[in-house]
From TrEMBL:
Pfam families: Xre-like-HTH, Xre_MbcA_ParS_C
InterPro entries referenced in this protein's UniProt entry, alphabetically: Antitox_Xre (IPR011979), Xre-like_HTH (IPR046847), Xre/MbcA/ParS-like_toxin-bd (IPR024467)
Gene Ontology MF: a single term: DNA binding
Protein name: Antitoxin
Domain Antitoxin Xre/MbcA/ParS-like toxin-binding: 90-140
Domain of life according to the entry: Bacteria
The Antitoxin Xre-like helix-turn-helix domain, residue ranges: 26-85
């Protein structure tokens, strides 16, 4: 399992914010509202050539309201943290950002030829399916 500190790093939370690197601290940070800049950062990391990717996580009109408020809702933050976690897992397996992106955005036969990122964005169960595939790749079982 990916360390909570790694998820916090992907989200761009300040390194000095030590409580956000522990399980309950990160949960609290998400519940309190992750900063909008975390969404911008994750979108740039995962899909640098797709300016629309962030709108898959938070719809455009909603994002404009969130920018005014300065933070995401708990649900949006949870979705963003799930995406950040899977990105970190994919990097851990592939050791290369481009290869991690290829895995995440290419249809995969173990998930009925859906793209892993589509499942991750859609639901927690989708994220777990993708995490299981990545775990199988990392630890040597069929994926």
């Amino acid at each position: 399992m990916l360390a909570f500190a790694n998820v916090a790093d992907v989200l761009g939370l300040p390194p000095g914010e030590t409580e956000a690197r522990a399980p309950f601290g990160l949960i609290s940070r998400i519940e309190d509202g992750l900063p909008v800049k975390a969404l911008e950062r994750v979108a740039r990391l995962i899909a640098p050539e797709d300016a629309q990717f962030k709108y898959r996580l938070v719809p455009k009109a909603t994002l404009e309201r969130r920018k005014a408020a300065g933070h995401l809702s708990t649900e949006e933050g949870t979705r963003l943290a799930r995406v950040a976690r899977i990105w970190g897992l994919a990097l851990d397996v592939w050791k290369d950002e481009d290869e991690a992106r290829q895995f995440l955005f290419r249809p995969h036969p173990m998930i009925e030829d859906e793209r892993p990122m589509d499942l991750v964005v859609r639901s927690e169960f989708g994220g777990e399916l993708v995490a299981d595939i990545l775990g199988g790749l990392k630890y040597g079982s069929a994926a």
